[in-house]
Write a structure and sequence with these properties.
actin monomer binding; cytoplasm; Thymosin beta; mainly alpha; cytoskeleton
């Protein structure tokens, strides 16, 4: 169809069937309304209506819900359409290791030891006196250690910026080279 030629367009449009709207029903065919209802409808004012907030009962799923459902459906489809012929045959080897004689003997020894501990009677023990071989230091020794510790920490943490500058004077000077040479020649 060439739209640059209007006469052809009009001819093409006239050949298309356009649906026609049905005719409105006649007045006699309309249902009859009771007179008191009719007067109420005519006197109706929308300003007398109360405001009401609408609440959406059907909530659309979020993007996360849709993604989760797609993942779940893909998993179900993968399980349903799984091809078991692609699996490889394997042999199951069950390893049940029974204990040997050494393990049984060790277990019996441990069990006897536990029973001996459970049945132990502390009344059969002999009374002993405990002698302290390494007594705690007395107050004087502790004070000496504290004094030594304080002295060492004072030396380690000494602030040399608090010192005053001092000039030293030599009171017993060494002889010069000329004096030494004179003494050698004499």
């Amino acid at each position: 169809m060439d739209w640059s030629r209007p006469s052809q367009c009009i001819d093409q449009m006239s050949s298309c069937a356009v649906p026609v709207a049905p005719a409105p029903p006649a007045l006699k065919d309309l249902p009859k309304v009771a007179g008191d209802l009719k007067s109420e409808l005519e006197g109706f004012s929308s300003s007398k209506l109360k405001n009401a907030e609408t609440q959406e009962k059907i909530v659309l799923p979020s993007a996360e819900d849709v993604a989760q459902e797609k993942t779940h459906n893909a998993l179900i489809a993968g399980v349903e359409n799984f091809n078991s012929s692609s699996l490889k045959r394997t042999d199951t080897k069950e390893k049940i290791v029974l204990p040997n004689a050494q393990d049984l003997a060790a277990e019996k020894t441990e069990k006897a030891l536990i029973e001996g501990i459970a049945k132990f009677d502390p009344a059969k023990l002999k009374h002993t006196e405990t002698q302290e071989k390494n007594p705690l230091p007395d107050k004087d020794v502790i004070e000496q250690e504290k004094a030594q510790s304080n002295l060492l920490s004072g030396i380690e943490n000494f602030d040399s910026t608090k010192l005053k500058h001092a000039e030293t004077q030599e009171k017993n000077p060494l002889p010069t080279k000329e004096v030494i040479d004179q003494e050698k020649s004499a």
